[in-house]
Amino acid sequence: MATPLSKPKLAANLSMIFPEVEFLDRFAAAAAVGFRAVEYLFPYAYAKTEIRARLDSWGLEQVLFNAPPGDFENGERGVAGLPGREDEFRKSIELALDYAATLRCPRIHVMAGLVPLAGDPRRHREVYVENLSWAAGQARNGSVDLMIEPLNAKDFPGYLIGTPQAARSVIEEVGARNIKLQYDFYHAQMTHGRLLDTFAAEQDLIGHVQIAGVPGRNEPDDSQEINYRAVFAGLETMGYGGWIGCEYRPRGETVAGFAWAAPYGIGPKGKRQG
Ligand SMILES: O=C(O)C(=O)[C@@H](O)CO
Ligand SMILES: [Mg+2]
Fold first, then answer.
1. 246 C-alpha to ligand 2 centroid (Å)
2. Ligand 1 center–CA 150 separation, angstroms
3. Mean pLDDT score of the chain, rounded to an integer?
4. How far is Cα 38 from Cα 35, in angstroms, rounded to an integer?
5. Ligand 2 (single-atom ion) residues, CB below 5 Å
């Protein structure tokens, strides 16, 4: 059995965990079980000062959120790679950077978007590279890194970036040091497996990590395909010291599902990670 990573830096994904309480109350819930950092999809329905106040009240660090993704409710998954949406993209980055400054958040996930069946993937990729090049310049002023994340094709059919290799080729073409890869072990297992090998191959670009069990995207525990004790041990061996977002859908009540996280100080008796 792999030795647990001595102290994986776990961040609570407030879009997925603690659905029992309202969004703004999830900050308190995360702190109460021992988290000291949070991430989530979108803050834009709330005043940035209100979120800042929650972070301060509970002594939490904001480590990631997403740029506005287009019409998310109606299925859009980002506009960065959508031809004809360049103005909207620029406004979305300006808004995200404004929130990032107040939330003191060093990372923004920029979703690429879906290529329609009749679309030309090469054209979408071209627009994606152009948009990211512009956004990287804007983000550099605020010392923010922009993340791009390969998403699996079962949950996100048509998503422009499906593999770490595709992400790498975009990042290298943009050539900006503040564009990084968000490596989500859930999507990686759903798409290609060989998790630690592929992580090692891309590690020079990786700026953030997320986890969930496969196949259900539930708690990352022993009932699921991925052995996270081995993953955490591998990350430690490779010297990954960044945040690990807990981006999963609890099967039941969130706190009752934290048995997997107890060795890392998260749970009903969770003490704050040092
Ligand atoms: O679904 C994921 O995985 C994410 O990290 C989101 O930011 C995109 O839906
Ligand atoms: Mg993810």
1. 9
2. 9
3. 95
4. 8
5. 184, 210, 247
Kindly report the pTM of this predicted structure. Answer: 0.96
4 lies in a domain?
no
Residue 235 host element (H or E): helix 228-238
Q: Which residue's C-alpha comes closest to atom 1 of ligand 1?
A: 151
Pocket-forming residues, ligand 1, beta carbon under 6 Å? 41, 66, 109, 111, 149, 184, 187, 210, 247
CA–CA dist 237, 253 (Å, integer): 33
Here the ipTM equals 0.97
Strand segments (E) across 170-256: 179-184, 206-211, 243-246
| Alpha carbon distance 28, 235 (integer Å) | 29
- Which of 39, 42, 63, 66 to probe ligand 1 with, by most ligand atoms within 8 A of CB? 66
pLDDT computed for residue 269 by the predictor: 73
**Residue 270 belongs to a domain:** no
Classify each residue of 79-107 as buried b or exposed e, where b means 16 or more C-beta atoms within 10 Å of its C-beta.
bbbbeebeeebeebbeebbebbeebebbb
The stretches in the chain having pLDDT less than 70 are 1-6, 270-274
Residue 272 falls inside a structural domain: no
Ligand 1 nearest-atom number relative to CA 245: 5
Q: Which domain holds residue 214?
A: 9-264
Distance 156 CA to ligand 1 centre (A): 10
Q: How many domains does the chain have?
A: 1
Q: What is the CATH number of the domain that holds 35?
A: 3.20.20.150
